[in-house]
């Protein structure tokens, strides 16, 4: 290959690298600027948005904000839909329709559809693409298209401390207790007791906590060892580096 062609290729690669860095920096600026917080709500006017709560940019479909309350230190991922009411610009009365407690996490692409009351307890974590809805289509009339029939609505209540796996669906009328684990892809309806693990479609209890016997059936893996109190992030990073060095020297 001629020398000038090599020089041209190297220059093109350098320019591409510069453009790539510029694009990433611009996108980071757009994400930071477009995020919604209590200090910078943009066009959104929630009934409440707590301290430290952040809706990542780009946001999904959001309407009915005057009837939505977001607690403190919530993390709302990209493209998350939050709606109160069947459609925008409805008067839903004086009461809150959709409530997120403190520390709730909604993963990327999740949907929370609150045509009637939906409550998500504090410190509940949802993986990506979770779907929580208080509304379901009806099909009572076999001669009418399903999409034209009036939907059924039932309140949804999710207790504090739950873990809802990727792609799970929480149907109208569901009531989850405290510290419930919902497996990825599960479809939950009805009532789920405290400290239960549910899986499947429809979801069924596959593991539960007994105060005397512990988890039944027993866990297959040992409990994680907690980090001792007083350990700093810098110390943890140093330990991780030592482990990496030991692994490379093995």
How much of the sequence lies in strands comes to 25-35%
The CA-CA distance between the termini, in Å, is 43 Å
Rounded to an integer in angstroms, the radius of gyration calculated over CA atoms is 24 Å
- What's the helix count? 2
Give helix and strand order, one letter per element, not per position. HEEEEEEEEEEEEEEEEEEEEEEEEH
> Which sequence of strands runs across the widest sheet?
2-5-8-11-16-19-22-23-24
State the assembly state of the protein chains: single chain
Average predicted confidence as pLDDT:
90
Q: Report the major sheet.
A: 9 strands, mixed
Q: Flag low-confidence runs.
A: none
Tags for this model:
250 residues, alpha/beta, 9-stranded mixed sheet, 2 helices, 24 strands
Structure description:
- This protein is an alpha/beta fold and 250 residues long.
- It is built from two helices and 24 strands.
- A nine-stranded mixed beta sheet has the order 2-5-8-11-16-19-22-23-24, with no helix packed on it. It has a seven-stranded parallel beta sheet with strand order 1-4-7-10-15-18-21, with no helix packed on it.
- The protein is globular, with a radius of gyration of 24 Å.
- The protein starts with a helix and ends with a helix.
- The mean pLDDT is 90.
What is the compact description of this entry?
20% of the residues lie in helices and 26% in strands. The chain is an alpha/beta fold and 250 residues long. The protein is globular, with a radius of gyration of 24 Å.
């Amino acid at each position: 290959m001629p020398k000038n062609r090599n020089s041209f290729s190297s220059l093109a690669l350098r320019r591409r690298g510069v453009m790539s860095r510029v694009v990433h920096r611009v996108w980071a600026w757009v994400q930071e600027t477009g995020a919604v917080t209590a200090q910078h709500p943009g066009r959104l006017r929630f009934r409440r948005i707590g301290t430290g709560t952040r809706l990542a940019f780009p946001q999904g479909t959001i309407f009915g904000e005057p009837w939505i309350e977001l607690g403190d230190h919530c993390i709302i991922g990209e493209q998350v839909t939050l709606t109160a009411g069947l459609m925008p610009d409805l008067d839903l009365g004086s009461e809150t329709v959709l409530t997120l407690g403190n520390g709730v996490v909604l993963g990327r692409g999740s949907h929370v559809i609150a045509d009637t009351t939906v409550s998500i307890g504090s410190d509940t974590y949802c993986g990506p693409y979770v779907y929580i809805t208080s509304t379901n289509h009806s099909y009572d009339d076999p001669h009418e298209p399903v999409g034209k029939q009036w939907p059924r609505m039932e309140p949804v209540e999710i207790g504090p401390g739950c873990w809802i796996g990727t792609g799970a669906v929480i149907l109208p009328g569901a009531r989850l207790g405290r510290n419930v684990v919902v497996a990825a892809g599960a479809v939950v309806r009805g009532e789920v007791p405290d400290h239960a693990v549910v899986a499947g479609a429809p979801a069924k209890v596959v593991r539960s906590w007994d105060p005397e016997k512990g988890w039944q059936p027993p866990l297959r893996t040992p409990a994680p060892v907690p980090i001792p109190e007083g350990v700093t992030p810098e110390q943890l990073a140093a330990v991780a580096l030592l482990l990496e060095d030991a692994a490379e020297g093995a």
